[in-house]
Amino acid sequence: MKPAPFGYADPTSVDEALDVLTSEGEGAKVLAGGQSLLPLLSMRLAAPSTLVDINRVPGLDQISAGPDGVRVGALVRHAQLLASSEAAGVQPLLGRATANVAHPAIRNRGTTVGSIAHADPSGEMTAVLALTDGSVTVATPEGRETIGWGDFFLGPLETSVHGPAVVLDAFFPALPERSGTAFAEIARRKGDYAVCGAGVVVTLDADRRVSSARAAYLSVGLVPEVHDLTDAVVGQPVDTADWTAAGELARGLVDPDGDLHASADYRRLLVATLTARTLADAGAEAARRTA
Amino acid sequence: MTEVRTERAISVVVNGVPREATVPVRWLLSDALRHEFGLTGTHVGCEHGVCGSCTVLVDGQPTRSCLVLAVQVDGREVTTVEGLSRSDHQGGQVLHPIQEAFRECHALQCGFCTPGFLTTIAAGLDARDPSVEITDEEVEELVGGNLCRCTGYANIKKACRHAAATMRDEAAR
After folding, report:
1. Residue A232 and residue A213: Cα distance in Å, rounded?
2. Which of A69, A248, A253, B79 could form a Cys-Cys staple with A173, CB 3.0–4.6 A?
3. Half-sphere exposure (CA, 13 Å, Cβ side) for A234?
4. CATH classification of B86-172 is 1.10.510.10, yes or no?
5. What ipTM score was computed for the predicted complex, to two decimals?
6. Which of B72, B126, B140 would best serve as a mutation to test chain A binding (most A beta carbons within 10 A)?
């Protein structure tokens, strides 16, 4: 099918974009990479009255990586983030998760911040924003505000931002010292929506014992979920930590729905398996970084 | 104040030729290529980004033409499967090595998905160092975003390796 008729504007500044969003009212929608929005339009699952294309707004395509974390602008494409060794150096989850986002042709166009603003619970970057305790910067006619991930995601495809607004960037805090990360997902075809996915961060103390183990899941809940699995492995030497026990703990903490692709029980099994597997990898990496 | 329009004039370089058109803003790039510019080599399969048949190059990057609006390529360069062949410097055209390899390796049957495979793989092969032998992993990444429902992928992957070998030999010459 084809998108239903709509009006189109391509402003060249954030203020102009906010002006158009304000004057066009509720039916107006921001268009960035469009890799999720345009299919919704073509399938007539969405029919905005106006698309406000921000692709011609200068300055939104920057990645800035500093000691505190990585700030990703609204027009940074997945492919650009995947290729950024500076970003991966500060927060390795960014590259690891982005490699799982769709296919190269989609990554060339789709944006990291767009995925987050789309708030799909099967999105990789929503999970990474949650796991790293990140935030977004939102511009509204009243000014700019920073919103933490927990206050931003309300439900599937729903955020706390209403009315005229543009998400300007997402901020991913840096990986703490003596920590390691891993990301893995299971999909019917590599690059398709994950049946289940997991990202994890393991942190060790100075004696190479586990001090923290946290995981975020995709395609498991209605919003990105972060679970603290530290209790299952706390104080254990990293080389002999019982990651399987942490996986079992996670299995009990999640409450996924079943659908055409996987039953709820199968998703719980995947949570346990992916958790144990990714924690082992992250633990090994944390050990290497705790020389 | 930025104007909200339902129709827009665009100018775009398609396969090296500057083109101008006035298009409804709801048109996808695939609509403009096929219906305005008459380039029916770009095939539209699922029209929501899953199958990869409509993949073209926008400023050299593989892009789903069903996931970009025609107005969004104003001022850009688009290459379709019709634009993959190159001049032989004798007044004629030669096929891209991946096009030759598809023929050589029987990498198509019905041909519906072929334009999307060719544009995606051609861009991937052009972007890599031809002197380095291509790995199975690279080949799988090249073809993983496109669906083929009749030949299967064995011969398509064979064609990727064949084209990569041709490009290695050409670069060594």
Report:
1. 9
2. A69
3. 7
4. no
5. 0.94
6. B72
Q: Are A106 and B66 a contacting pair at CB < 8 A?
A: no
User: Do A26 and A127 fall into the same domain?
Assistant: yes
What is the C-alpha to C-alpha distance for residues A124 and A160, in angstroms, rounded to an integer? 19
Same domain, A115 and A216: no
Determine how many CB atoms are found less than 10 A away from the CB of residue A39. Answer: 20
The pLDDT value recorded for residue A1 is 78
Domain end (from A153, A175, A197) = A175
Confidence at B151, pLDDT banded by 50, 70, 90: confident
Q: What is the residue-averaged pLDDT of chain B? A: 96
> Percentage of chain A with pLDDT > 90?
97
Q: Do A106 and B145 touch (CB under 8 A)?
A: yes
- Of A32-46, A155-169, B24-38, B80-94, which gets the smallest average pLDDT? B80-94
Q: Which residues of chain A does B5 touch, with a Cβ-Cβ cutoff of 8 Å?
A: 7-9
CATH code for residues B7-83: 3.10.20.30
Quote the pLDDT of residue A192.
86
In terms of CA atoms, which chain A residue is nearest residue B45? A1
A218 with A142, same domain: the answer is: no
CATH 1.10.150.120 domain extents, chain B: 86-172
